[in-house]
Amino acid sequence: MIHLIVGNTGSGKTTYSAKLKGKNKGIIFSIDKWNKTLFLADKKPTDGLKWFLERIERSEEIIMELVKQLENAKTDSILDLGLSKLEHRDKFRKFVETNGYELKTHFLDISKETRLGRVIKRNSEKGETFEFEVSRENFDFMENWFEKPSEIEMQDGITITE
pTM of the prediction? Predict the structure, then answer.
């Protein structure tokens, strides 16, 4: 089973993924950890969204290969990859359909106020789910960037609210 974890910045995707892993013993792929480990040290101040998206795309090629191996081993994959855009989620749906895998979409539909509070707290406490600081500017950008899943997208999915 492949789990798509969808939610805007600060919705609790990484925390939710960890709880899901505890229930099904799956493997988590968290794009924030990949970005921090593989790319952030090389990022220049002039590098923007395009720079990140190119690296995410390359990371996801490797992730998809690992997911195939996990599916063969009958181990769930928990994809905490941001998945902010319908097109991005559709890419994984097509991958699932093409390979004959099972899919479950989990949408964390959490209010902006709650998410902002979580981001501010995470930035200051730098706790277990902290990978890098999210500025207010980046948080606000994501408010417009994120595409909420439709009812059709969430058919047979799970929606988590506050």
Answer: 0.89
What mean pLDDT do residues 125-129 have?
Answer: 84
pLDDT at 132 over 80: no
What total of structural domains would you count in the chain?
1
- State the pLDDT at residue 52: 82
CATH number of the domain enclosing 143: 3.40.50.300
Beta partners for 108?
160
